[in-house]
Design a protein that fits this description.
alpha+beta, 4-stranded antiparallel beta sheet, 122 residues
Amino acid sequence: MADTAHAELRLPYFKQGDDLAGCLAQVEKAGAANPLAAALGLHVEVLENAIVDLKRLQLAALANPGQLLVDACTHRIGVSGPASLIEDLLAAGTLDASPLDGDAVEDRPLDPYELEDRGVSR
C-alpha cells in the first residue's frame, strides 16, 4: 500500500475479572450506595465504548474494502491502511497512534507483553 500508516485499536478491557474488580474498587472509593449495581453499570459503559470503536472500524472496513489490514495478536491490535483513512480514524478517537510509527519506538521502553510478542521471554 502506498502512503500506508499504522495505528492501534486499544480496547478498554484486559481480563474480565480484573476489569470488573477495577470497576468495583472505583465505585467503592467513590462511596456508591450500591457498589455492585454501580460497578456493573460502569463496566457496561466501558464495554459500550469499546463497541462504538469496533463499529467505527467496521464501518471504515465496509466503506473501504480491502484497504485496512489488521494484525491482531495476544496483547495488541494493529491496524494499517491508507494514511488518510488511518488519520480519519485517529481523529475520531477510534485508533491510537502506533508505537510502530516514526520514532515512537525509540522514545519508550517496550512493556513485557510487547517483548513477549516479539519472541523475547519475560
